[in-house]
Design brief:
Layout: H1 26-37, H2 39-46, E1 49-53, H3 61-76, E2 80-84, H4 85-95, H5 107-111, E3 114-118, H6 127-142, E4 146-151, H7 162-170, E5 172-176, H8 182-202
Parallel strand pairs: 1-4, 1-5, 2-3, 3-4
Helix pairs in contact: 1-2, 1-3, 6-7
Length: 203
């Protein structure tokens, strides 16, 4: 029901490999752990979320957002939802076509306690898209509802208007992930192990 991608359904903060990076991740680990430990009294009270970004695909930002989001959801019994920004906009578009009495499937993302808004900046840059991204961010922040963003760009470079960017920056702790692909490294290690098994058997 959360919308978390299948490969991340078992995610929780204890499973995130902070030590897998060449850069020291001590501060980022502390912030993530504080988000979980003090979510109610610090983060939710201030309406503050996270903005995880890096230019490098596979750096772990989506996995980390899911680890944090699922851990918070379980600990505090929250309604948490995950969706990419392009997929959210598609659901909004579908909601305008629904028949009277039909459920608005986009509403849960505006109403849930915690939203992971993945890949912001990947949406089309039309006026309608800008208005809908502003609408969900503005509604949630006005209601004190927390958002965890992921992106491949810093907030200032987002293809959004200034009022939306200002709200993101005001209500998010901006965290840049290391510019290294953990996904690519893990794929290479898996490939190497697979080939070792073949070559060993041949030997």
């Amino acid at each position: 029901m959360t919308g978390v991608p299948p490969q991340f359904r078992g995610a929780d903060l204890s499973k995130f490999g902070f030590d897998s990076y060449s850069r020291d991740m001590g501060n980022l680990r502390k912030i993530a752990e504080d988000f979980l430990k003090n979510y109610r009294e610090r983060w939710e009270k201030a309406g503050k979320g996270l903005y995880l970004w890096s230019k490098t695909p596979g750096s772990g930002k989506t996995f980390l957002s899911c680890c944090i989001g699922k851990s918070v959801m379980i600990k505090y019994d929250l309604r948490m939802r995950f969706i990419t920004v392009p997929d959210y906009l598609a659901k909004v578009g579908e909601s305008y076509k629904r028949q009277p009495g039909e459920c608005d499937e986009s509403a849960i993302y505006r109403e849930c306690d915690l939203l992971i808004f993945d890949d912001i900046g990947a949406q089309k840059n039309g006026e309608w898209q800008q208005q809908e991204v502003f609408r969900i961010i503005n509604e949630r922040l006005n209601a004190g509802k927390v958002i965890i963003f992921t992106s491949n760009m810093c907030p200032e470079d987002l293809n959004l208007d200034d009022r939306t960017i200002d709200r993101i920056m005001k209500k998010s702790v901006i965290l840049q992930m290391p510019e290294e692909s953990i996904r690519r490294r893990e794929a290479k290690e898996e490939q190497d192990d697979f080939l070792k098994g073949i070559l060993h058997n041949q030997g």
